[in-house]
Amino acid sequence: MIDYSVWDHIEVSDDEDDTHPNIDTPSLFKWRHEARVERMDQFIKAGEDLEKGLAESKRKLTEAQKKTKNLSSSVTDDAKAELSKAQAEEKRLKKEERDWEKKLEDHRREEKKMPWNVDTLCKEGFSKSVMNVKPDVKEETEEQKEQKHKTFVEKYEKEIKHFGMMKRWDDSQKYLSDNPHLVCEETANYLVIMCIDLEVEEKKALMEQVAHQTIVMQFILELAKSLKVDPRGCFRQFFDKIKTADQQYQDAFNDELESFKERVRGRAKIRIERAMKEYEEEERQKRLGPGGLDPAEVYESLPEEMQKCFDEKDIAMLQTVITKLDPTEAKVHMKRCIDSGLWVPNSRADEGDDKEEDATYEELNKEMGEQKIE
User: Fold this and answer.
1) Which of 100, 108, 124, 354 lies 20 to 30 Å from 90 when distance is taken between CA atoms?
2) What range(s) does the Cdc37 N-terminal domain occupy (predicted)?
3) What letter would DSSP give residue 136?
4) CA-to-CA distance for 331 and 319, rounded, in angstroms?
5) DSSP SS3 for 176
6) How many CA atoms lie within 13 A of 355 on its CB side?
7) How confident is the model over 250-285, as pLDDT tens digits?
8) Strand spans (E) along the chain
């Protein structure tokens, strides 16, 4: 059987009673409420005073019991007199403790008999607040980002390339639904690199197709940032929006696509120029002569008459030109020709030592007939 008697003693709320028309009802209800709250406060305070009195009585009784115990071990007459007083005090405190307990028990019994009201009808059993706070994420270092990108590409390169070749909105949406792990920054970065590679290879139509998919991924990532959600959870919203977009949104997408393709062409041009410079430097290093000089640069620095001699490979003409030059100037030019490999001394000259570098203009001129031009 369920006991419903507890519901028989409920004090109705202050605004349920009907009042006479001549009575100011709001004021009456306010006074009733204030009076009831004041009675409750007084009752609660009386209970708190009883609990404090009981606690103080227990404390005094404990101290009296300790004192009695200490005196009971003494055999002097004074100690015995003190012991009698301590025992009497202990007895009195025990009676006082029982009185406090009885008063507190009566107070609690009276509390149970009090009718319930709007303030006591229910009490909070427990309270718990949960706040979803995004934990602080440490910013990744460049090395960590590079390693993360490398690992991701090694695992999903085939899937990323497949997505980059798609043309229809529905196909792209379905593919990302089947492969949601591709909706991330690493995919967008790989597609950018892929576009530059295709432009360098002069596969322009294919580059434009991959560029379109790159902007699709970047728009999804930007949408996720604006909504502050995981991009894997909002890519469907992007496709729903782009397929039903107004002309302004579609124009914004197309403008970003065209700007991106221009940036790709610029990056590809820079890469090609850098590759050409590296190639030219490699070729230049291959051309360097035994003295570390570039024969092309040395040739350009020679007087026009000497350039003609090398063009025609005419040693007699070169001897004539040398005799007309200032000896110091002629020595400098011939030394640079040898260091660049433009002039290859004969075997007898190769067998010489460092005196070759200090040879006079006349000695070089005498050896002209025994040397060859390469």
Assistant:
1) 108
2) 1-129
3) P
4) 13
5) helix
6) 6
7) 888 889 999 999 999 999 899 888 888 888 777 777
8) 343-344, 372-373
